[in-house]
Design brief:
The chain is α+β, with helices and mostly antiparallel strands and 176 residues long. It folds into 2 domains: 44 residues; 104 residues. It is 43% helix and 19% strand. The strands form 2 sheets. A 3-stranded antiparallel β-sheet has the order 1-2-3. A 3-stranded mixed β-sheet has the order 5-4-6. Helix 1 packs across helix 2, helix 1 crosses helix 4 and helix 3 packs antiparallel against helix 4. The longest helix is centred in the C-terminal third of the chain and has 19 residues. It binds zinc ion (ZN). The site of zinc ion has 8 residues, from loops.
């Protein structure tokens, strides 16, 4: 998406909202070069998407199911409903813009996690716990370590995972 002011192609999405009954998506962007803000409208061509479940069964992609899962993961995190809707829009657009028309529930789950990771750590771990079918505390610890390692590699900083950042007990996370 080219910046109308300086033609730079790198921009950051500040806000996105679907319009016209989700036929198009309105995005508020900020140019990474000149910091000007601009709005884009992107048409979405909705082609049915097939989800391949863990047991091998196929069903058509169900947006409301995805929405419900994310709402549950975001409970009491302070993330607004509007923000959640916009996340679901982004995820759906990602799927729609892919050349593939079939996704495993695994691929969709990982995509959701990619978005939740940027949004909220609690929501991320909750979603991971359900979708990756956590069996016990070991799985939580592994996911937290993953989160930490990804943080370190991405920001390349010496940020350490402070003890106080860790959940005191896994109970709230298990309370789905
Ligand atoms: Zn620009």
């Amino acid at each position: 998406m080219q910046c109308p002011y300086c033609q730079n192609t790198e921009s950051r999405v500040l806000e996105s909202r679907s319009t016209e009954g989700r036929q198009s998506i309105r995005r508020r962007r900020e140019c990474l070069n000149c910091k000007h803000r601009f709005t884009t409208y992107e048409r979405i061509e909705f082609v049915p998407i097939t989800v391949i479940k863990r047991d091998g069964k196929r069903e058509s992609f169900d947006r409301s199911k995805l929405l419900r899962g994310i709402i549950r993961a975001c409970e009491k995190t302070g993330i607004s409903y509007q923000r959640i809707e916009s996340l679901v829009d982004e995820i759906e657009v990602q799927l729609q813009q892919n050349f593939e028309r079939e996704f495993t529930s695994n691929e969709i789950g990982e995509l959701v996690l990619k978005y939740l990771r940027k949004e909220n750590e609690v929501a991320y771990v909750r979603f991971a716990s359900v979708y990756r079918k956590f069996q016990g505390i070991k799985d939580f610890v592994e996911t937290l370590h993953q989160l930490q390692n990804e943080d370190n590699t991405e920001t390349n900083s010496s940020k350490t995972w402070k003890k106080s950042n860790q959940p005191e007990s896994p109970t709230p996370v298990l309370d789905f």
